[in-house]
Amino acid sequence: MSIDQEVEALQRVPMLRGIEKGKLRLLAFISERMVYGPGETLCKQGDIGDSAFIVLDGEADIVVDTDTGPKTVAVVGTNDIVGEIAILCDVPRTASVIAKTEVHTLTISKDQFLKMMSEFPEMTIEIMRVLAARLERTTRDLADVRGELARATANG
In whole angstroms, what is the distance from residue 72 CA to residue 93 CA? Predict the structure, then answer.
């Protein structure tokens, strides 16, 4: 993929849409291009978050370790960004990201990611929207699980 194709791909990432093309070219230039085969791990739950991944092509499962074993909680694909929570919150990775298909990414270091956020407030706002949507979905899922547990306990 050429740098121009990478810039076009970055323009399709929702949280990067408002950033001018020249800045996206710089982002593409400073990012590391990676390819993961099916089953390969992009990042592992519990590891230190030192980078975020922009998925240029392919799909990956978001997997969390639970008491009953690994559980896929989401699937990400082309134009998604993953791994940003650990960077933003300075916490270990909250989930593993495992390639479902061949996955092509641009990997952005923590320092570069935070620099982009400080230079482009519109990116920061979009990241807040994405994270708020994830939090809402997680809260809803948690409420559903609690309801199922309550019904199972009442019937059991």
Answer: 15
* Number of domains composing the chain: 1
List the domain range (segments joined by +) for residue 46.
3-155
Contact yes or no for 54/100 (Cβ under 8 A): no
The strand ranges marked E within 25-129 are 32-36, 41-43, 51-57, 60-66, 69-76, 81-82, 96-99, 103-109
Q: Tell me the per-residue pLDDT of 84-114, one tens digit each, with 9 for 90 and over.
A: 887 788 888 989 999 999 999 999 898 888 8
pTM, to two decimals? 0.78
Q: What are the φ and ψ backbone dihedral angles of 103, each rounded to 5 degrees? A: -120, 130
Please tell me the predicted confidence (pLDDT) of residue 124. 81
Q: 115: domain CATH number?
A: 2.60.120.10
